[in-house]
Amino acid sequence: MNKVAPTKDEIALMVPFTGLALKHIHVPTSREEFAVAATKIKAAGIVGFDTESRPTFAVGEASEGPHLVQFALHDRAYLFQMHMTEGHPFLVELLRSERLIKVGFGLRSDSKHIRAKLGVELGGTVDLNTVFSMDGYHKEMGVRAAVGLVLKQRFAKSRKVTTSNWSQPQLTQQQMLYAANDAYAALKVLEAINIPRAELPVMGSIPNEPKVSEPEPSGAGRGSRTERYRKERGLDSTPAISSLPKELVRPWKLLTLAVGIGLLIWGSFHYSAPDWDIPISLIMALFAYLSAGWSMHVMVERRWRYFPLMLLATWWSVDGCYALYWYFKDPVALELMRAANAPASLSLYWMCGLVWFWNGSLKELAARLIRRRY
Question: Which fold has domain 8-205?
């Protein structure tokens, strides 16, 4: 049964939301102030997050936002104005960080605009719409409904403020209060829900490889089409070689590896193939575990610069280690069975690649599937 958020009439009867006062809202204007702000934000670990853009009114006019990025802590908020280029290095670090959990509503749109504006991926996000969807609220919640539902308070939104010019150099007090408390409300909602950090549906993990800092010009060659292909399908997640250890110790991946090894060992006892024994089962399973998921990402995401390494890893896991083992163990079995082993092992290798394709926890996978559905 779908759960229902409070109606506008019900929210109108609630007490006003207790937000941050103006004295607790900071707008950095120098490199030193941006550095202090970034340090405070990173130390918080979990922050409320939102962006604001100057509205567009003409049909077909594209937004040039975001013009303001908000981070809300438990006792203060920091507003980063995009025209202050001194703060961009600090802002980019905060946006990309997976350790800094950024909580908000409808973050897919924010992520798209940030990517277009700064050329970086938004990492470590918790979209509260996803959290409420997982709890049975299948209609997008939004900050006003969530504050009413969880905090029993009325979050006021002034159309005059929300549609104001967020790109102006000097924000008004009304803009500062609205922007800061829009992010602050998301943090207060998360606190009230009281979900342990380890159970949060954190999305937006980014690979540890450099990103293109500026969008490619129109008419670029195959590279630009490839980037668009990956972004349109949400596939921008190929792990760099240095990040593979993190994926290899995921409990669900280790469990599936153990199941697979168990089946291979069982098969070595019950099938009389001359090239199937316990050692080669362990060797090939481990090499497949190390490379199959990554190889599948290279293929699906068209990471052509990794293609030679992917081919080498695939050959070694499917045939190379097999041939080396049986060359010393039983050359006759190698000569007899090598041709038959290759297609069978290659099929199993790519099946493993599909199983281990997802980079993240199963909870994160469930959250992403829910987001795509709703």
Answer: Nucleotidyltransferase; domain 5 (3.30.420)
Q: Is residue 28's pLDDT more than 60?
A: yes
Residue reference for tokens 């229902």: 4
Helices (H) and strands (E) in the chain, counts: 16, 8
Interacting residues of 274 by C-beta distance below 8 A, sequence separation 6+: 330, 332, 333, 336, 337
Q: Which one, of 88, 44, 96, lies nearest residue 66 by Cα? A: 88
Are β-strands 25-26 and 68-72 bridged in parallel, bridged antiparallel, or unpaired? unpaired
pLDDT digits (tens, 9 = 90+) for 223-242: 444 444 444 444 444 444 55
Residue type, 65: G
When mean pLDDT is compared across 40-44, 46-50, 130-134, 143-147, the lowest value belongs to 130-134
SS3 16: strand
Joined together, the tokens standing for residue 162 give 């929300």
Parallel, antiparallel, or unpaired for β 101-104 and 46-52? parallel
Q: How far apart are CA 356 and CA 294, in angstroms?
A: 8
Query: Tokens 């409420």 belong to which residue?
Result: 132
Is the pLDDT reported for residue 322 higher than 90? yes
Using CA atoms, how far apart are residues 290 and 284, in angstroms rounded to an integer? 10
Structure confidence at residue 1 as a pLDDT band (50, 70, 90)? low
d(CA 213, CA 68): 19
Q: Which amino acid is it at 334?
A: L
pTM over 0.85: no
- What residue ranges do the domains of the chain occupy? 8-205, 241-355
How far is the C-alpha of 173 from the C-alpha of 163, rounded, in Å?
15
